[in-house]
Amino acid sequence: MLKNHLISILRNLKRSKGYTAINISGLAIGFAAAILIGIYVSQEFSYDQHIKDHERVYRLSNRNFAFASIAHMDMLQENVAGVEATVNIMPHSSGTIKYKQGESIIEPSVFYSTQEYLGVFEIPFVYGNPETAFDKPSSILITKSMSEKMFGEENPLGESISLSTLVSKDVYEVTGVVEDLPSNTHLRFEVLARYPVSYEKVLKEQGFNGTVGYTYFKLENPIDNIQNLSDRVFAKPQYDMTDKAQDFESYLASYQLQLPMIMNIADVHLKSNIQFEASPPGNGQYLFVFIGIAIFIIILAGINYVNLSTAQASKRAKEVGVRKVLGSQKKDLIVRFILESFLLTFGAALLAMGLAEVALQVMGGFGFENFNVNVLDYPYLLSIVLLTAVMTGVLAGVYPAFILTSFKPSVVLKGNHKVGSSSKVFRNGLVVFQFVVSLSLATFSVFVYQQLNYGLTKDLGFDKEGVIVVDNSKGQLSENVDPFKNELLQLPEITNISSSAFSMIGNLVLTGLTEVGGNGDYYRAQYKYADSDFVPTMGLNVVEGRNFNDEIDGYEAILINESFAKVLGEEFYEKQFTTGYGDDKYKIVGVVEDFHYADFSIPIAPTLFFKGDEHRQFNIKIRLDEIDETIDEIDALYAGFTDEPFDYYFFDQKFDQLFRAEKRMSRIITIFTGLSLFVAFLGLVGLISYKIDQRTKEIGIRKVLGASISQILSMLSKEMVWLIGLSFIISIPLAYYGVQTWMNDFAYHVSLSAKPFIAIGLLTIMFVVLVVLVRSIKTAMLNPTQVLRNE
């Protein structure tokens, strides 16, 4: 019996090749898209969960920025029972590594750490003993990839390497090679070295002011109220220095926001978004948007399948009647229809897994780290897809199985059966739902693209083009700084050079300014050191006062931005300020236009520039023609002053990296919105084809009665245009709400205009009309005698 069912099913599928292809491809693409989204979301939600006992590992940070000092770490360990191990980690964005016979590389993922790193983070070793690998002050761990890059397939244990960073230049011994860390961790290093002894000593001497690293600790057992215990530990010394006019509990409640923050390491990526995060934080809202997209794509694919299956079923009523006359039982017909539907959906699910795997390989090759995995690594996702396929198959098979098999053969074979108007309403409702979702996503994706483009083209308050930044944080040029700058200025392609400390973008370092005299007001601001050439080199605009002047300004001169000027109020040129370090009294000499140093979700904060001759980096303004040749000339000059490798980056490219999250979201939403629209239009093509097939004889009769081809095409288009128009009207408030909610996350964003809504609506209607015309023109041009000859 099963064999007969299978043979019959295959014959039917062969007869309806077009509908079969549309059904399978629509479902497969929908399921594949859902698998890809599921993998991405799973990667984001599982950040740092690869760490053994991650539920017992916590980060200790300040409330407003992610750093904490070694003193914080030690105080917590001494006063909270059950702390198993603590570690302080400091990443560096540029480290020069020399190995073997003078070979060198520049590595952007260098971490320093205190001794107990491996006590907090248990990571798998390729070579070395985890129990002793970090015992020596000269210990250094490298990843498997870094080991292969430097030493090939050799075991590098015992090899000496020189590491130069902003901190120091030291020789280390390779004491361990660890497996590459996964992409979904916020502490991803290639090189992990012990803090230099002298530097760690300085950090300890600085006490709670030495906040330059990230602090983590591991508990012997999870403690639910660990934040409360921490608050009490750090508040008690402060309370003891007060006059104790209020009780400790009241003091604790009022002082709580100034105390360190405890967060489980698995929560850091999605729940922490403070300054100086070790890696770009995730966005939980985006993930729920993606989950919604995945669900809707599956629903769209399922709707297509159910829609076309029920539409096709009505054409098979005579087949059911003939089978009943020949003796088929109702239960056999029910089994046959459900089995046919199940086999189609199950085949589509298997095809989707193959498509998803191919897409993962392609996207992984293009740098999408979240997709650099294998489909089989996510069995629960595959199980959900298979279960959905089974449910879709059963649901789509129920209609022909129970409705058509209930018809009387005598009625069906005479052609007097009617499926009922309710099925048409149902199918039209499904079409409207499909396009409401698809059009809402399409409109949302347009605004996401506009916001991304806004960030890349908005006036930033400076000129990011044509600036290369050369690193000197490791003292590569030594006493040759001025000769190097003078030689560069001889090149006609170079228009300006400045020296500075710290990058102009990302999180700048914080300091405090206290007004001397007056009310002694205290102000918190971001700062950097810059010379008098920095403003013209970076294209900053002085809107009030003047720039630094080497002839009349000493190191007491400072520049501030407009946001800081608003905070200070009027007559700030007459005021003097102190940082609390030394006896220097600073005076403001000018105000620069507000400039963006972070992505547009962060408002511009008070910022100041100290005048200084810091040479940690050189900002070199070059002409935009012949950039490659200019870089080669600078490299050649650099090599004449030092044997260190030339470490540089293009400032505009570095700045554009601030918008990686928006770029990633734009790409993902565009891809999956395109897939949802493709699935929706695929179903629409199938439904239009079905409607035309059903009305072929009607078209013939209308032509006999004098209808023109244009009138017939208009008749066929009218219903579909009406359905899409209704979908568009319903999608407008939904899309508007979604876009407005998303835009609330940005301090600076594009304005909401009607143009994207209108453009999406018109393009969709035009495309629908085109599909109807292409699909129906052949039928409309048929000779009526060919259509009606059997009547």
Secondary structure layout plus pairing:
Blueprint: H1 2-15, H2 17-45, E1 57-61, H3 70-79, E2 83-92, E3 95-99, E4 103-107, E5 110-113, H4 117-120, E6 125-127, E7 139-143, H5 144-151, E8 160-164, E9 169-178, E10 191-194, H6 197-206, E11 214-219, H7 226-240, H8 248-255, E12 261-264, H9 268-271, H10 284-313, H11 317-325, H12 330-365, H13 379-403, H14 409-413, H15 421-457, E13 467-471, H16 481-489, E14 494-501, E15 509-515, E16 522-530, H17 534-538, E17 542-545, E18 557-561, H18 562-568, E19 577-578, E20 587-592, E21 607-611, E22 617-622, H19 627-639, E23 648-650, H20 651-656, H21 660-694, H22 696-704, H23 709-743, H24 755-780, H25 784-788
Parallel strand pairs: 5-10, 7-9, 16-21, 18-20
Antiparallel strand pairs: 1-11, 1-12, 2-5, 2-11, 3-4, 3-8, 6-9, 7-10, 8-9, 13-22, 13-23, 14-16, 14-22, 15-16, 15-19, 17-20, 18-21
Helix pairs in contact: 2-10, 2-12, 2-13, 2-21, 7-8, 10-13, 10-15, 10-21, 12-13, 15-21, 15-23, 15-24, 21-24, 23-24
